Amino acid sequence: LLLHLPPQAPSPPPCFPLPRHGSCSRAFPLAMAIQKRKAVAKSTGKAFKRSKAALTRKVKEEQHEEEAEENEEAEEEVEEEAEGGDEGEEEEEEEEEESEEDALKRREEEITAARKKELKAMPVGELKDLATGKGLEAGKKEDMVTAVVAHEAAVRAAQRAHQAKIREVLVKKKEELEALSAPELRDLCVAAGTKGMLAKQARIELLLKQWQDNDGVDKAIAKMARDAREAELGAMDKLALRELCIKSGVECFVKEVIVERIVKHECSEGRFARPRPEGDEDEEVQPTAKSGKKAQAGDMVEALLANEANRKREREQKKQEEDAAASKRKEFRAMAVGELKKLLTAKGKEVTGNKEDLVEAAFAISVQEDEAAARKAKLKSMDIEKLKQRLASRGLSAGKKEAMVDALLAHEAKIREAAQGWEVKVGEVLEKKRAELEEKTASELKELCTAKSLKLGVGKQERVETLLEDARTNGEVDQMIAEMNKEARRDELLGMDKAVVLKIGEATGVDLLVKEVMVERVLLHEDEFGAATNGQEDEEEKKRPAKRARTGKK
Questions:
Q1: Helix 141-178 and helix 200-213: axis angle, to 10°?
Q2: What is the mean pLDDT of the segment spanning 186-195?
Q3: Cα separation of 390 and 283, whole Å?
Q4: DSSP H helices in 134-254
Q5: Is pLDDT at 24 greater than 50 in this prediction?
Q6: Could you give the CA distance from residue 502 to residue 508 in angstroms, rounded to a whole number?
Q7: Which residues, including other chains, have CB under 8 Å from residue 188's CB and lie 6 or more apart?
């Protein structure tokens, strides 16, 4: 009961009257008992307060521990639910990705079915107008419905492809900007007119927006289309590209390329090499050697006898030629100077020098004419088949015997003239080289001779002559003249009309087309006038059956 009593405020001790002498021993114990009872009640109240606070504190600690455990369990459940949700979302996305094509196909089927139903209910006249407005041919109603539906489906597919390209170029541009460093992005922003401190993502968004405002998407898509077209043209062969160029009105040949390839072909054919006058190719068939030692002894004797006969015949022929030459010179010397000049002018020779020079010039012309007459007689006596072979080996066309003989003689005369011109150029080149060598010192000439393992000589002039002779014999002069002739031929071809040069190039059988040039020119033409067809569409158009005109009864 004392534990449940409320605490009481201490009260002042009661005032008892002083006992009398006889009652003091009984009153003092009673007062002490009252005081003790009050002290016990007071201490009991304080103990109750302390036990209640400790109990409350312990209860609160237990509640905190339970709440902490509950929070941890809740967090674990949330994490498990989040992981399960992510997996579910991934599964859902995979299902969506897998079913996207099916969904698109289903929507297209629904649109197609609805459109077909709508078009079938349309009057034929309106359907024809719709088909022709879309660039389609008019025909039976069912065919027109199918064509219009297919055309509209193709338009929708093109729109989807265009949107996909837009997304592709945007993603590519974004990745390109994200790959740049912060200083590079800052420089781009400054170049775009934007300064200040910005985050990397803010700079990327700013540059992307500016790129879009400057038609960056359209330009990127156009570049993708041009690259694809360039790859398509590059996969075509040269003949197909040439046909495409002709159809588009694009020039597929380059004059300078044709000239260079003609010159290269003619160089390989020996056009610019030193001309070699053709000698008599009539070779007598030598008798076959006999086997055995006895036969060898007899063949040797016969060969010596034949050789001696040939030498005797050559000496007689040479004597006859010398006599004829002396007689001819005597005849020309008997002529007056005016007659000699008139004769040389008629032969197309320049008239210069004194009478002896004119006599020698007239004699040289006479010798050439005699040789040509003898050569003509010999060619006429040849078998016609052998004559044709000679013409074919020289690139000449065959014909009647008289014409073939004249053609061979003209060809040989042309070669002799080219050889004379070559010798003139040799003299010019040597004179030019002489002037270059004479400008060098004796020690420099000595070094040149040493480098070429030539005789050093004892003086400057001797070394110059040694170097000039070496240049003549080792082919250096001929190579210089060949380069001069190539340059002259190149200038000659460049001065001709392009059609003439093309005809000459085609006659050589050399490939005159340059694929890269044709591709570039077709692309430039398509950039300005639109894409050109490659001829396959025309072939398909030709293969289509012609329409029969409808005939109605009157």
A1: 140
A2: 87
A3: 14
A4: 141-178, 182-191, 200-213, 216-234, 238-248
A5: no
A6: 10
A7: 180, 203, 207
Kindly report which listed range (185-194, 293-302, 416-425, 537-546) carries the lowest average pLDDT score. Answer: 537-546
Sign of CA dihedral 477, 481, 484, 486: negative
pLDDT of residue 257: 94
Angle of helix 124-133 relative to helix 141-178, nearest 10 degrees? 30
Give the pLDDT confidence score for residue 251 in this predicted structure.
Answer: 92
Q: What is the 3-state secondary structure (H, E, C) of 491-505?
A: HHHHCCCHHHHHHHH
Surface-to-core class of residue 92, CB atoms within 10 Å of its CB (0-12 exposed, 13-18 middle, 19+ buried): exposed
Question: In angstroms, how far apart are the furthest CA atoms of the chain?
Answer: 216
**Whole-angstrom Cα distance, residue 50 to residue 47?**
5
pLDDT band at 74 (very low <50, low <70, confident <90, very high): low
pLDDT at residue 166 tops 60: yes
CA distance 220 to 226: 10
Distance of alpha carbon 178 from the chain centroid: 30
CA 96 to chain centre: 42
Supply the pLDDT for residue 547: 44
DSSP secondary structure of 85-104: HHHHHHHHHHHHHHHHHHHH
- What is the b/e burial string over 41-55, where b = at least 16 CB atoms within 10 angstroms of the residue's CB? eeeeeeeeeeeeeee
Cβ of 552: how many Cβ atoms within 10 Å? 4
The tokens for 323 are 């006599």
From residue 358, give the alpha-carbon distance in Å to each of 117, 209, 341, 342, 434: 107, 93, 7, 10, 31
- Residues 396 and 408: their CA atoms lie apart, in Å, by 8
Lowest mean pLDDT among 73-77, 169-173, 382-386, 405-409: 73-77
pTM: 0.57
Host H or E run for residue 363: helix 355-380
Structure token pair of residue 254:
């380059």
- Whether 443 has a pLDDT exceeding 80, the answer reads yes
- As a whole number of angstroms, the distance between CA 27 and CA 19 comes to 8
What SS3 string covers 7-61? CCCCCCCCCCCCCCCCCHHHHHHHHHHHHHHHHHHHHHHHHHHHHHHHHHHHHHH
In Å, what is the CA distance from 206 to each residue of 173, 184, 199, 221, 517? 12, 14, 11, 21, 40
